[in-house]
Amino acid sequence: MDANAPDGPSSSAPPVLTVTGVGKTYEQPVLTDVSLALHGGEVLALTGENGAGKSTLSKIVGGLVAPDAGAMQLLGRPYEPASRRDAEALGVRMVMQELNLLPTLTVAENLFLNRLPHGGPLRFGWIDRRRLDADARTAMARVGLDAIDPATPVGELGIGHQQLVEIARNLTGDTRVLILDEPTAMLTGREVALLFEQIARLKARGVAIVYISHRLDELARIAQRVAVLRDGRLVRVDAIGSLTPEKIVAAMVGREIGERIDLGERRIGAPLLKVEGIGRGSVVRDVSFDVRAGEIFGLSGLIGAGRTELLRLVYGADRRDRGTVALAPRGGGEPVPVRIDSPVDAVRHGVALITEDRKGEGLLLPQPVAANVTLGQLGAVSRYGIVDAARENALARRQIDALRIRTSGPAQPVAELSGGNQQKVVIARWLARDCRVLLFDEPTRGIDVGAKFDIYALMGALAREGRALVVVSSDLRELMLICDRIGVMSAGRMDAVFARGEWSEDALLGAAFAGYRSRDALLGHAAAGVERAR
């Protein structure tokens, strides 16, 4: 099929952007001879497994990476951006999966960082704060951030709200091409709807949009065409109406993926983790729950409901005001309170956290895969306090094979891996250690369909070993697929706990909104969303 063949009403006009024969090689080729044409007023869905080359292609178009082969044209002229700033100056903007915000600056300053409004007769060095605030509120309202003060430092927001700020930043200004890389991974249904409204407005203005997502239901809602990458090559470009989700997945992974998963026969035992009355300010309010050996316990709720903050309190990353964490002795018996005041304490007691922010909190990006995998097991790969390279590589290779991490080898820097494979490296680190309680915060964020099922199967294997798993996810269907019980957080409290067979999507959503029924509670939720535990 001709990858440049346009489809849809936008195809009568010349392409806004053309990519011809583009290739990129690191230690091995990650893109080979990719050609695409993008038309104004259309959404082109770009999908494929992690490591297929989606992010690399996007970064080339967005000016972050230079291609090794091929050429590009923007509005019929040669397009060779030397940097992201060059690309943005020409109207090509990108919302990256990894956030590009300055945490110490306010929301308003991040939104208009390169074009801060000046006022008064002496314009040099003076910022018109009133105008900045008004412009910021307008931009924030487009993505549902009305309740957030534009003067709030971005670092005080949760990851979900930060992602909305990043999206709002790229919806301002003169945009000709907009690349959205997994923009809804951390958003609620309401926020996704607001984003799609903005996409519709941009399409009406003639903006060409590249939409990268593993959520195939989203692609059917907003895209006109879909382009599928596999192993760095463009394997299919077609009208979205011509492809079923099953056909898209088959093109992505080369095999059929079902909608059910067999986690194997498990024996769910006695409580291994017991949390009682844990809390911190109004962010987490006196939450109690337990998780049994061999059980997968899900945590659902809206952005800002306190899910991530709850995991951080259990792990000791944030100091709790009240409550206890108890663990069953290794020989068996009732859980007994343990002192966990820091992550070091947590790991010592066999508790691990796979963080939602792999870039900022989970990985040493410039370091090789081997160093990242063995970071939690330095004693096992060292002799006399010095890391033994052979042991380190052997341990890393076992985890690379077990999790099917796409890498050229243990020596490859983690920064060169796709987002999903970076997440696998974080998970691999804790699998090399004997942790009885595993806290997963958005473990499949930015991971493709095939890799998700690999992670689910891995979770099943961990549960069969008798470990206790707690999984935070914004994807209700994911939790309903893999969990034995689901606890729903609402306004910092555990509103309800559902056992398998008792829940429905409506019941889970109803519990998630239960804490925000009054206007006062909703305002309290907005305030809590910017109160980040330190």
How would you describe this protein?
The chain is α/β, with parallel strands linked by helices. The protein has 4 domains: 1-91 and 174-257, Rossmann fold (3-Layer(aba) Sandwich); 103-173, no CATH class; 260-350 and 436-534, Rossmann fold (3-Layer(aba) Sandwich); 359-433, no CATH class. The protein is 32% helix and 23% strand. The chain has helices at 54-61, 84-89, 107-111, 129-141, 159-170, 189-204, 216-222, 245-253, 307-315, 343-348, 358-362, 369-373, 389-403, 419-431, 449-464, 476-482, 505-513, 519-529, and strands spanning 17-25, 29-38, 43-48, 69-74, 77-78, 92-95, 177-181, 208-212, 225-230, 233-239, 271-280, 284-292, 296-301, 322-327, 336-338, 351-354, 382-383, 386-387, 437-441, 468-472, 485-490, 493-499. The strands form 5 sheets. The protein has a 6-stranded mixed beta sheet with strand order 6-7-8-3-9-10, sandwiched between helices. It has a 6-stranded mixed beta sheet with strand order 16-19-20-13-21-22, with helices on both faces. It has a 4-stranded antiparallel beta sheet with strand order 2-1-4-5, with helices on one face. Helix 13 crosses helix 14. The longest helix is centred in the middle third of the chain and has 16 residues, at 189-204. The N and C termini lie far apart (53 Å). The model is unreliable at 1-11 and 518-534 (pLDDT under 50).
